[in-house]
Amino acid sequence: MPDQNPTEHELAAIAEALYRGQKIDAIKRYRELRGVGLKEAKDAVEQLEAGLRVQSPERFAATSGAGCLGCVLALVTVLGIAMGQGFRS
Fold first, then answer.
1. Nearest-angstrom CA–CA distance, 22 and 26
2. Average pLDDT for residues 47-57, to the nearest whole number?
3. Whether the Cβ atoms of residue 2 and residue 32 lie closer than 8 Å to each other
């Protein structure tokens, strides 16, 4: 049976996944590393995430939805430029 306490290296890899907004990947990684069930892994990762959000909230701010918003803004800009050029032709 695997040791139930993740090493610092394992926790760092899981934390990086959480910082990137990849919670499912973090849970999968925890399950693989620890050999535990889904519920136990989810609970452990959520507890880790809560602690990380208290310690380093700025690391989460950069990834929370900014990617989608950035893509939408870029698309609107490109469409606006394309439509504007289309009317001038």
1. 6
2. 93
3. no
